[in-house]
């Protein structure tokens, strides 16, 4: 999704404790650096280590985005018909900074739940961009579908499908099935053996263009793959959760960022990997569009992340 890819900056020296392998480039007016978690390592502490190591090498970083996939919390009966491929963005509300750490809940004797701890908010420069992009999307379509199409045209291999590689294109509505929380997945490569009577019927969509939701994301150290556990966490948290993910909780108080997730499953036993590539692309495409609303001059006026951490 970068407009241009660069070599490492002249004179750049990686910190001795920084093991990140980075991609350098620009999107619009912004110079960016992309770092990923180590392969197969997905935990809150891993994300925090990746970010802190990056800051050791690049102390001038002023803000960040956490872009990846997540498990959607679909509630069609509550007018929240989130579907696979959709995008969720962490937006602060009166109770959270946009991310809630669901394992920091204390049970009270009166059967109420009390939140312990509070996660930080994204930088103001990103929240200002959120206001602008949401206002524009009320009167014109998102650029995400265009960016996805451009990606596939410039990288044809990404659109090719095989038995082991579903590719980075939309996977088809027939492969997006939501089941009741009381049901369970029948083991197999897909859901052919699952009881169709347990499937939740939803209004069909007329386009594959992803929808964007701005709400609270639930973060913790456990990968949620059970619908009953999913619903219990949502009930206990008392939050307007729309997505589960497992890295942001380790970042928000140490590397305040905006979290963008493409929905690749429904945090239940029906989880599979088919949608992961496509949804990672939808999240990245949204990040690209959002950066067009982030003013370069405002970024320059924003304190470096290291300065903020030193003041904390």
Automatic annotation (TrEMBL):
Gene3D superfamilies: Nucleoside phosphorylase domain
UniProt GO MF annotations: catalytic activity
Superkingdom to which the source organism belongs: Eukaryota
BP terms from Gene Ontology: nucleoside metabolic process
InterPro entries, A to Z: NLR-like, Nucleoside_phosphorylase_sf
Name by which UniProt lists this protein: Nucleoside phosphorylase domain-containing protein
Source species taxonomy: Eukaryota, Fungi, Dikarya, Ascomycota, Pezizomycotina
């Amino acid at each position: 999704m970068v407009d241009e890819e660069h070599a490492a900056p002249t004179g750049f020296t990686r910190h001795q404790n920084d093991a990140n392998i980075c991609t350098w480039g620009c999107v619009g007016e912004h110079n960016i650096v992309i770092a990923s978690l180590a392969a197969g390592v997905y935990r809150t502490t891993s994300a925090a280590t990746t970010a802190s190591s990056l800051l050791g090498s690049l102390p001038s970083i002023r803000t960040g985005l956490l872009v990846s996939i997540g498990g959607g919390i679909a509630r069609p009966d509550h007018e929240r018909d989130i579907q696979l491929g959709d995008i969720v963005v962490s937006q602060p509300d009166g109770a959270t900074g946009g991310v809630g750490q669901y394992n920091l809940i204390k049970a009270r004797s009166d059967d109420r739940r009390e939140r312990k701890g509070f996660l930080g908010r994204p930088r103001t420069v990103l929240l200002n961009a959120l206001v602008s992009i949401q206002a524009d999307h009320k009167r014109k379509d998102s650029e995400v579908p265009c960016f996805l199409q451009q990606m596939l045209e410039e990288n044809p291999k990404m659109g090719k499908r095989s038995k082991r590689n579903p590719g980075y294109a939309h996977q088809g509505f027939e492969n997006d099935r939501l089941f009741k929380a009381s049901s369970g997945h029948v083991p197999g490569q897909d859901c052919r053996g699952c009881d169709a009577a347990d499937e939740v019927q939803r209004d069909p969509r007329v386009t594959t263009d992803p929808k964007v939701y701005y709400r609270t994301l639930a973060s913790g150290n456990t990968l949620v793959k059970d619908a009953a556990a999913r619903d219990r966490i949502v009930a206990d948290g008392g939050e307007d959760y729309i997505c589960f993910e497992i890295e942001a909780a380790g970042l928000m108080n140490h590397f305040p960022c905006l979290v963008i997730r493409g929905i690749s499953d429904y945090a239940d036993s029906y989880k599979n990997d088919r949608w992961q590539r496509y949804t990672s692309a939808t999240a990245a495409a949204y990040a690209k569009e959002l950066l067009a609303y982030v003013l370069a001059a405002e970024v320059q006026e924003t304190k470096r992340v290291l300065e903020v951490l030193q003041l904390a």
